[in-house]
Specification:
This protein has helices spanning 16-33, 45-48, 64-71, 130-142, 156-164, 175-180, 214-220, 226-245, 293-309; strands at 8-12, 37-41, 77-81, 93-97, 106-110, 123-126, 147-150, 170-174, 189-190, 205-210, 250-259, 262-273, 280-288. By secondary structure, the protein is of the alpha/beta class.
């Protein structure tokens, strides 16, 4: 059996969403490498812990076990939701590919097919993300809506179940996740980016492998989308710079502005706020599309510095319980 036909081992979380994402990547990798890809299911701390994500540290809880398996050589590469990745990259691992991004927006699944703005007074909206709570509460406050955000955890089935059984009026989820598991038709409203900025990297996947595996890095690199990579790099740079001075929930999105068919500018938007939505710092910057990793990093750092100068750090220390 030649080395080229030996199966590549893809490390994945066991959740239905992770398995769906990884299955799609496995097919793509198989096509570019000509080798079969087998999924290796790995249980992470974030999957087994019943604590709220904000309490167990939020970032990294779904990633560490996959990275350990990579480091030990138990798997050849791993697929992560990019928004789960800590902003510091381990030196022995490399993000070999960031494929084309799915819809980055947040969505709601509400009872009676309601839109967000049609929810009744006092509507209970479930989400585990302080970022979503902050922005939904801020939007409600400025538009005279009366809502209550309720912290929840669990997979997609569990969350949507809260609506179906009447415990909650609506839940907030990521469009990309619902799309990848074939349930986008259950969405009752897509939340505008102007209402809720997504988590940095939301809708994008990261394909990671050992930094010393040059041939695999080259093969996986064929799945990389340059525009997606530069966008998420800017978003994650903003997050990293804010994390240094601010522990409040951060939303960010970099999108490309086109003149006809020509993409000529990138806009980066960032938001940070208290979970009750009373205090928000929201800024954006627009400029030429960064042509290098360092350029994208600089764009994120610059906007973060402006946000900190406008008081983002003063929103520190708020954690959703």
């Amino acid at each position: 059996m030649s080395g080229m036909s030996k199966a590549l081992r893809l490390g994945t979380r066991r959740s239905r969403l992770a398995m769906a994402q990884s299955g799609q990547v496995a097919d793509a990798v198989s096509q570019v490498t000509g080798r079969p890809v087998e999924l290796v299911e790995i249980t992470t701390y974030g999957d087994v812990s019943r604590e709220h994500l904000a309490q167990i540290g939020g970032t990294g809880v779904f990633v560490t076990a996959l990275r350990d398996a990579l480091a030990k050589g138990e798997v050849d590469f791993a697929v992560h939701s990019l928004k789960d990745l800590p902003t510091t990259q381990p030196e022995d691992l490399v993000l070999a590919a960031v494929p084309v991004r799915e819809d980055p927006r947040d969505v709601i699944v509400a009872r009676d097919a309601l839109k967000f703005t049609d929810l009744p007074r006092g509507a209970r909206i479930g989400t585990g993300a302080p970022r979503r709570m902050a922005q939904l509460n801020a939007y409600a406050r400025s538009h005279g809506l009366d809502i209550e955000t309720v912290p929840i955890r669990g997979n997609v089935d569990t969350r949507i179940g809260y609506v179906h059984d009447g415990e909650l009026d609506a839940v907030v989820l990521a469009a990309a996740g619902l799309s990848r598991i074939g349930r986008i038709d259950e969405v009752t409203d897509f939340l505008s980016i102007d209402t809720v900025l997504p988590a940095p990297g939301q809708g994008a996947l990261a394909i990671e492998c050992a930094a010393d595996n040059a041939s695999l890095i080259a093969a996986l690199g064929e799945l990389d989308d340059a525009f997606t990579r530069v966008a998420v790099t800017a978003e994650r740079s903003l997050l990293a710079a804010l994390e240094a001075g601010c522990s409040a929930p951060v939303g960010a999105l970099a999108d490309l502005l086109a003149d006809g068919q020509i993409v000529n500018e990138m806009r980066l938007r960032g938001v940070v706020g208290t979970t009750d939505g009373t205090r928000m710092v929201q800024l954006s910057t627009t400029g030429p599309v960064p042509e290098t990793h360092d350029g994208a990093m600089a764009l994120g750092r610059e906007l973060a510095a402006e946000m900190l100068a406008q008081g983002a750090a003063g929103l520190m220390g708020e954690r959703a319980l």
